[in-house]
Amino acid sequence: EQAARVKKLQEQEKRQKVEFRKRMEQEVSQFIQASGEPRRRFQPMNKIERSILHDVAEVAGLTSFSFGDDEDSRYVMVFKKEFAPSDEELDAYRRGEEWDPALAEERRRLRELAAQQEEAELERGPAPPGPPNDYKDKYRHLIGSDAAKAAARTMEANKAYGCVPVANKRDTRSIEEAMNEIRAKKRLRQAEDE
Prior knowledge:
This protein is mainly alpha-helical. It has a domain at 1-85: 2-Layer Sandwich (Ribosomal Protein S8, Chain: A, domain 1). Helices cover 58% and strands 7% of the residues. It is built from 8 helices and 3 strands. The protein has a 3-stranded antiparallel sheet, with helices on one face. The protein starts with a helix and ends with a helix. The model has no long low-confidence stretch (mean pLDDT 83).
């Protein structure tokens, strides 16, 4: 009983696919006959239906692309060969934007202008070696503009640098006295251990 039900469902799906293919073939033939329509956008459909539509478009000699992010919103767009989309047009559709030829022309012109400017910079040659900016400008907000000069004028050398007065020393014994005391402690420990 279950096998019969599965077989019936498979036949029903097959019939639906055949009917869908016939309907798409009719729509594609209408699109081909419509002279003022360079492209046609179809409603969102599932993966199998999109593959059927791509196959029908290929057999008819048309170019087709799928657009959309998730599986539920993907749709197919069919283009006539003489109105094949440019890469910029395809990128616009992939981003979910509507194709605007005037905007595309403006972008193309801006890219050309940027390329010309880059070419002009290359012709001028490399920039002279050296840091791109002065470190003093970078730290001006911290040290000010005249702080370093004022500090240099008032600075005096510390003549006692590195010298420690005897009063600050912890151990005032001589080296010989310290060594004798260490030896005495060592002898005392050895005697206690024996």
